[in-house]
Amino acid sequence: MKPLLLKNVSYVVTCNDRDEILRDCDIIIAGPEIRAVGHDLEPPPGAEVIPGQGMIAIPGLVNTHHHLYQSLFRGLPEVQGLPLFGWLQKLYQFWRHLTPEAVYYGALVGFSELLRTGCTLTADHHYVFPSGQGNDFIDKEIEAARQIGIRFHATRGSMSLGRSQGGLPPDEVVQEEGAILEDSARLIETYHDPRPYAMVRLALAPCSPFSVSLDLMRHTRDLAREKGVMLHTHLAETTDEERYCLERYNRRPVELMEELGWIGSDVWFAHAIHLNDREIKRLAGSGVAHCPSSNMKLGSGICRTSELYRAGVKLGLAVDGSASNDGSNMWEEMRRSYLLNHLQYGEEGFSAYQVLKIATRGGAEVLGRTDTGALEVGKAADVVLINLEDVAFAGCHDPIVALVCCGNSSLVDTTIVNGRIVVRRGEIVTLDVGRIYSRAQEVSRDMVRAEREKAGQARS
Q1: DSSP assignment of 346-384, as one string?
Q2: How far out from the chain centre does Cα 413 lie?
Q3: Average pLDDT over all residues of the chain
Q4: Domain 61-366: which topology?
Q5: φ and ψ at residue 261, rounded to 5 degrees
Q6: Which residues contact 326 (CB under 8 A, 6 or more apart)?
Q7: Among candidate residues 373, 387, 378, the one with its CA nearest the CA of residue 426
Q8: 242-253: per-residue pLDDT in tens?
């Protein structure tokens, strides 16, 4: 892998502890790390020089929550307009047709969209393991991530509480708890890399309070802490979830997490919308993945982002599953989070720079990464270049406001992950995206057709 010299970059947004924004600056990348940031730097031997005039460099965006397989179930008319519980109940019927190949292509679709919109590190929450399809879904995602070149935090999700036991999902998409824990240990031992600049890490992620037993939550907690990996789950996404927890456990969702020992620096939650003031304070030190588009589409509510941030909760952004927002576009999440925050807090809302920092360094902190999320010497070489000379940014007098608020395109010019260029001039260069599209379409149509035929037979 050649060294890189990013030469005379017009603006370098470091997101470092001093919040420096540097002008007309050079960045030297060698191997997986940033080796130098400064002016008039000499290129290392054999380096590729990338002109940076008119460009703004930012740390790679970090996506803290996704369901990559859902990239193959977008725009289904059967689920449009439904709230979360009704949406899930209909989609479970389609998801029972998932295969390892479908998970692989769903991941490649999502990764492609993320990389082209400036995301260099993504987590995924995969919890659907239909009967008879085996346990290698996470393996397929990791294979896809390595091939396309994205930094990846896979989570071994799980559902064990089927409808017959009072849970929301149908029994054919849940698993026995012993099998879940055994596969979780296998995946950690096979793939988890705790070293700096690691390209693959694992976390454990029971789906939600309405789809797993409390015993599985406890056993998963113990296994994760024994193995030194993080924990993740959905939390306080809807009033339906709140009602379910009160009726089944006589506890609000956060109270349930407290009882289970599921709060701390090694835990991050998706959504965290329906919280009272005490619960916001109690989550200090834990992480939250804010998913603005998904929360808007499903009518779930608006996350109290400023209050979480002020309370010391680690805050990052996320696209959530593509079926609940129809895209894996981190740029749109950044814009919408800014707008929703100002809808709530007005003049006291986040600045454009604060939102950008939450989308980069904030997300890295949510995922437990101190080696990425900033542009400074010794950090991972996860760098994104955006062309500010596009007409979409004309007339804007602040480059950060331009990034967060302006523009009619979310495609970046260049995405560099771990020192490797994976996007040039807005296009993936590591894999054939046209081939990914063609096969993903075929696999997606086969699954949807199989479910519609099955549903038609049941009605007749």
Answers
A1: GGGS--HHHHHHIIIIIHHHHTT-SSSSS-STTSB--EE
A2: 21
A3: 96
A4: TIM Barrel (3.20.20)
A5: 70, 30
A6: 74, 75, 297
A7: 387
A8: 999 999 999 999
